[in-house]
Amino acid sequence: MFALEQGRYTVAAGATGVIRASRDASVSYALQRETFGTKIANHQLVKQKIAEMEADYQMAHLLWLRAGYLKNTGQANARATSLAKWQATVRSEKAASMAIEVHGANGYSNDYPVERYLRNCKAAIIYEGTRDIHTLMQADWALGLKSEKSARKGLPPWSPPDARVAAVD
Ligand SMILES: Cc1cc2nc3c(=O)[nH]c(=O)nc-3n(C[C@H](O)[C@H](O)[C@H](O)COP(=O)(O)OP(=O)(O)OC[C@H]3O[C@@H](n4cnc5c(N)ncnc54)[C@H](O)[C@@H]3O)c2cc1C
Question: What pTM was computed for the model?
């Protein structure tokens, strides 16, 4: 389980990257593609998709950073790591799907990277505990039917090279 919690952490990070990549590709395309005499970035429902990708990216990133903080300080993190993995992967599927729609038919082709993001995100929803298993675990923790165990193995103390906090872009 200790090993799985490290794996789930890396899966959360990868899925967070898929959300960011989906957002970045969509922003780039929306600022280029024109329909009805204007860039599609000016259409409200395109904006909505990009806004949701931005929010999902920031939330997944924060959940992942929280799990990392708990790990670095030797605290129990199974619940936080599960939450980060579950939410990042589920939101990455949503982001990749929306990115394809922002690209229209181009999104369905492999001329653009977004179709690959949708395929990639599905594996991460399945491995290291499926979406269903994390849903059940989170419910059981919230209901008090499952208790958080102490971290089975501590990591060596970590100190940042400087006080600078990594920029959240
Ligand atoms: C690309 C990829 C790479 C992988 N790499 C590895 C690897 O390196 N090492 C490794 O060990 N495994 C790996 N796996 C396997 C992965 O961990 C399993 O596929 C995963 O745990 C699901 O098991 P399963 O495929 O047997 O599905 P099943 O356990 O048969 O699940 C089928 C469905 O039933 C649901 N389900 C099952 N049990 C329950 C339950 N108790 N409650 C509610 N719903 C349930 C599941 O959520 C799922 O929707 C990989 C899988 C993929 C897709």
Answer: 0.90
